[in-house]
Specification:
Largest sheet of chain A: 5 strands, mixed
Strand order of the largest sheet of chain A: 1-11-10-6-7
Largest interface: A-B, 9 and 17 residues
Strand content of chain A: over 45%
Number of helices of chain A: 2
Mean pLDDT of chain B: 90
Number of strands of chain B: 9
Order of helices and strands of chain A: HHEEEEEEEEEEEE
Strand content of chain B: 25-35%
Radius of gyration of chain B: 29 Å
Largest sheet of chain B: 5 strands, mixed
Oligomer: heterodimer
Structural class of chain A: mainly beta
Helix content of chain B: 25-40%
Number of helices of chain B: 4
Low-confidence stretches of chain B: none
Radius of gyration of chain A: 23 Å
Strand order of the largest sheet of chain B: 1-9-8-5-6
Order of helices and strands of chain B: HEEEEHEEHHEEE
Low-confidence stretches of chain A: none
Helix content of chain A: 10-25%
Shape of chain B: elongated
């Protein structure tokens, strides 16, 4: 009788274990998702194919820059967040394809295409080893997304099984401006 | 009457299949892993440059259906930011028209410390001026083989690079094609 009872208990435990394994198995997209590398603004952080350092972030109501012989002005319903970064491909030539502003609430803002003509816009630019480049990552964000945010930067726009830097942006690295002239940041 | 001296038949115990199956696991598991992983591993190896074939910079070498020769590696300009624009000219004498025409071919400059520079996507102005002066079409590796050159033809390939000026003197040229990978050629400045 005890023997039978032991077997039944062992079977129940095995079934329970299998059920727990089934419930906690991560999905395919999670298994093959980005590999997050944590960092903080001001320090140099290494990804698989590039290194990056966020010098500072400027929040502004309006952007201004010169390109193609004329002046451009852009305003926004929210805020412009301009990150001044230094990046280098390592050990091989790389391209920064993914740049996302992640708010504390989890909302994500892709780098703005409205400011792509600005000189020094770094997304999509080639980064050569040994030639660190200073440049800008520009986002258009909601007013409540400015504090406690992080930058997500990766080589491809939707990284799979590849590094994605998650760079925390402490308040002492954030500046404010009414109108930001991007040409003064270079 | 029965023969009392005949020996009784020995009772043979049934085979212990549970034990046999357990013993088979160390063989079957690696075998299953090998069968499952063979294709992805081969695809991965075919996409990477793993085994180097070193050759002196000024000597031709055969790889993936062609005889390759570095014609020149010139520093055509230096920029104020410390970078240099390099222009690489390579010739390929076709030995196997099918193998050599499989894209994509990969050409890069490789420093002794492992840094690797890929060809510029758009030819820099400094290199374009030199090409125009030399009346060179400046075809990079992919377009150069688009016309499927026949066996015996010599194909001229030009690539331009942007790299630190200090790294130019020691950078080797590496080259690989789908038909060669995971093997690749390294035209080394020094042996």
């Amino acid at each position: 009788m005890i023997r039978i009872l032991t077997r039944v208990v062992a079977l129940a435990i095995a079934a329970l274990l299998l059920f727990a394994l089934q419930q906690t198995t991560p999905g395919y997209s999670e298994i093959t998702g980005p590999i997050t590398q944590q960092g903080v603004a001001g320090t140099r952080i290494n990804a698989r194919s590039f290194t990056l350092r966020v010098e500072k972030v400027v929040l502004a109501e309006r952007l201004r820059w010169q390109a193609f012989g004329r002046s451009y002005d852009r305003d926004t319903g929210g805020l412009w967040a301009v990150a001044l970064v230094e990046a280098e491909g390592t050990p091989s030539t790389a391209t920064l394809g993914g740049a996302v502003w992640q708010a504390a609430s989890g909302l994500r803002f892709e780098a703005s295409q409205r400011a792509e003509q600005a000189g020094g816009f770094l997304r999509g630019k080639r980064l050569e080893p040994g030639l660190p480049q200073r440049g800008l990552l520009i986002f258009e964000i909601g007013r409540d997304a400015a504090r406690g945010a992080a930058l997500l930067v990766s080589e491809s726009r939707w990284p799979r099984l590849d590094t994605q830097l998650r760079i925390a942006l402490p308040d002492d690295r954030i500046e404010q401006a009414e109108t930001l002239d991007l040409d003064t940041l270079k | 009457m029965t023969d009392a001296t005949a020996a009784p038949p020995i009772a043979k115990s049934p085979p212990n299949w549970r034990r046999r199956c357990l013993w088979a696991l160390p063989v079957i598991l690696p075998l299953a892993l090998f069968v499952q992983a063979r294709e992805p591993v081969s695809t991965w190896a075919g996409a990477n440059e793993l085994f180097v074939e070193r050759t002196p910079f000024d000597r031709p070498a055969t790889l993936a259906g062609a005889e390759w020769r570095v014609v020149s590696l010139q520093r055509v300009a230096e920029r104020p930011d410390g970078s240099a624009v390099a222009l690489l000219r390579i010739e390929a004498k076709v030995l196997d028209a099918q193998a050599v025409a499989q894209p994509p071919c990969r050409i890069a400059l490789l420093a002794p410390d492992g840094r690797r520079w890929q060809p510029a996507f758009l030819t820099p102005n400094e290199a374009r001026r030199v090409l125009s002066r030399d009346k060179d079409e400046g075809k990079s590796c992919g377009p150069a083989f688009l016309g499927k050159p026949p066996v015996g033809a010599t194909v001229a390939i030009t690539e331009s690079f942007i790299l630190p000026a200090a790294a130019f003197a020691t950078a080797d040229v590496t080259l690989s094609l789908p038909a060669s990978r995971p093997r690749y050629l390294r035209f080394a400045r020094t042996n």
